[in-house]
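[agent] plan:
  1. take the single chain provided in the ticket
  2. run structure prediction with default settings
  3. attach structure tokens to the ticket
  4. add a short note for the reviewer (M.T.)
[agent] executing step 1
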Amino acid sequence: MVEPLEISIQGDWREVTVPDTLDLVDRAELAVNCLTGIFDPQFDYAEYHVMKLWPSPPYMYHPDYGTCCRAKPVEALVGLRQMTGSDFNLEIDKGVMGVLLSNIADDGLC
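[agent] step 2 finished; step 3 output follows
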């Protein structure tokens, strides 16, 4: 039989007031900002995939393996925009959709 570990809980207890609901629209607006911020209009709306946080200043860049996931954030943005009614950075959506549609051949394949 395995002996249970004794765990010491440190800290103190206090009563706090917290909201009983989570404002999902507010969270979705933050997500719109995040998802539209990953695209680089100067680089054919390629996504930033890598962030280097330790240099000063931190920076993002496009890796050598291309832009394989462009449609996934766009898919999420559609729902987020329906949820919030936000038109923040809408020109980014239009640019990314233009690039995605230009990659579809006459036979319907990418």
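[agent] step 4 note for reviewer: DSSP finds three helices and four strands in the chain.
[agent] ticket updated
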